[in-house]
Amino acid sequence: xxxxxxxxxxxxxxxxxxxxxxxxxxxxxxxxxxxxxxxxxxxxxxxxxxxxxxxxxxxxxxxxxxxxxxxxxxxxxxxxxxxxxxxxxxxxxxxxxxxxxxxxxxxxxxxxxxxxxxxxxxxxxxxxxxxxxxxxxxxxxxxxxxxxxxxxxxxxxxxxxxxxxxxxxxxxxxxxxxxxxxxxxxxxxxxxxxxxxxxxxxxxxxxxxxxxxxxxxxxxxxxxxxxxxxxxxxxxxxxxxxxxxxxxxxxxxxxxxxxxxxxxxxxxxxxxxxxxxxxxxxxxxxxxxxxxxxxxxxxxxxxxxxxxxxxxxxxxxxxxxxxxxxxxxxxxxxxxxxxxxxxxxxxxxxxxxxxxxxxxxxxxxxxxxxxxxxxxxxxxxxxxxxxxxxxxxxxxxxxxxxxxxxxxxxxxxxxxxxxxxxxxxxxxxxxxxxxxxxxxxxxxxxxxxxxxxxxxxxxxxxxxxxxxxxxxxxxxxxxxxxxxxxxxxxxxxxxxxxxx
Length: 500
Fold this sequence. Notes:
single chain; RVT_2
């Protein structure tokens, strides 16, 4: 309440005729540290925004957040250029947005002023729960940062860069959490001072923990891991004491849709959701199996449970794996693959790609194709088109970062299909399917403008292989190492010395 009053979020007035008043409630939450210890207790006043009427109480509501891929790219750049990485948190961020609409709210419970009990709160600033609150906050932040000489990245609207006097400052915003990258501590402190002038912020110092990811400064760069989160889900679903496994999926097991009764469907879907968070953020080695098992969410069988238990056993063995970014190589390169001999009931292949910077994966995907391929070549071309589009986006992102080399070279994509490479290098493709012809045109266009280039690689060296199928133990280990997945090291301070 002190924060709301200091921010002058509302003023009391009588409700005008014809206007509706919105309710509110107090939301109480216990904030915890990465080791699950209690950090603080938080109370938040939330408006019942579900009663707002479109085009009356709110109009546009869209607010961008930084892609997790962008955050990984920034951490990789920090490793390459030995950047200082600090973290800040804006307190009650949504209260900073200015409202354009006329909105009335009931007085908060337990804080009704007796002599003004008949009055309501007319909101002057946005509040948690309002549909337009995220948009108003982002607009306020965007206006402030741009007015201080920062430039927004056109590929990710939540990344801001400022370069002057051979120094560079980058701000990466995710709702109310932000990472500040700088070539030295002085430019980082300048950015902090600029933010403290306009917002009430919490300076967290060197980046350690964001979005459930532990950020560790190592002797050779930075690493990202979710070891605490993985331990948490192993304990939550009673797999903490299970027998470890060497691979996340047994390739000899064939899984199909369950035609009988489902087995513990709600718990199965809950585990898949928990695993998806890890697979999307720091664990590309389990991306394929989590996506594949997620296809059976609606009606899992005992065989599906056996497969998901194997994933948990694999995580038990590899809980401390994290993506390590080092000070070389300063190159963006990708790998593309497809598995046409699919286990899918509808005979659709699986696409996979991974892109590395500084020796660690920054972007990856494992996804069932939406087009029915008639051959291995067609499935590989579909996968290559998907990888090329991601490569083009990554290239655009890096082209606006002052620390990346100029001019930006084409992104090299490794593919293990000579037939697909031969087709995309030819101007003409006379296939029957219009969808495949469009994929060919996509790759051809990016090749022509110099955004990407494609070369052949042996299947044994293709890092995208585990994103399309189950592999034996040795290949799982080698591809994980190629994507920068290694056991996490002790944390060090900004001068490179290990912490106590």
